[in-house]
Design a protein that fits this description.
CATH class: Mainly Alpha
Oligomer: single chain
CATH architecture: Up-down Bundle
Strand content: under 5%
Order of helices and strands: HHHHHH
Shape: globular
Number of strands: 0
Helix content: 55-70%
Number of helices: 6
């Protein structure tokens, strides 16, 4: 029961923060929805695929089996650890960006954040996404969810690369120096 609650509450809380933050941004006339840095269909479909994978994890946690095989207990515990770490990174990354947070490339000027978690990883939120989709795959052992997870990781890596090009253009040498000090993921 506690496992199911933890698995359920983390994505619900994160999505609440994400969409609640969007509402707060709109009140300040800030558009949290940036431009898609890659093909818009791939960009949007990968974002929704994340939510679908999270929903699959929640459904599995509440006893609806999504695979023909049960995940061994050790994999379930590893998956739960990756789930918690992933959402920890998502929350810390989101709050660390503050008002510079955007889904996509900002339409207006933002600040380059290099402090907090961003002094350890240039993309901690993406590491969090990768950890959560890995958790789904390990927890469910569903081959279709594995394919969706691969799609998400490939597309999000493309998003990161396109985002980096935009940040180099926007912040120039400051961003280049940051890239020399801090790794892309870990």
């Amino acid at each position: 029961m506690i496992e199911s609650l933890v698995i359920t509450l983390l994505p619900v809380a994160f999505l609440t923060v994400l969409f609640g933050g969007g509402a707060l941004f709109r009140r300040r006339n800030v558009d949290m929805d940036g431009r898609a840095p890659i093909n818009k269909l791939r960009f949007v479909s990968s974002k929704y695929a994340i939510v679908l994978l999270w929903a699959a994890m929640v459904v599995q946690a509440w006893g609806v089996h999504l695979s023909f095989v049960d995940s061994p207990p050790v994999l379930r515990w590893i998956a739960l650890g990756a789930w918690i770490i992933g959402f920890g990174l998502l929350f810390a990354g989101r709050f660390g960006l503050g008002s510079s947070f955007r889904i996509g490339t900002p339409k207006e000027e933002t600040a380059l954040r290099t402090d907090g978690l961003y002094c350890l990883s240039r993309n901690p939120m993406y590491v969090g996404v990768y950890a959560t989709v890995l958790a789904v795959v390990l927890y469910t052992l569903n081959p279709l969810l594995l394919l969706a997870a691969v799609y998400i990781v490939v597309v999000h890596h493309q998003i990161v690369l396109a985002g980096e090009a935009g940040l180099r253009t926007t912040f120039g040498e400051e961003y280049v120096g940051y890239c020399q000090r801090v790794r892309r993921y870990l």
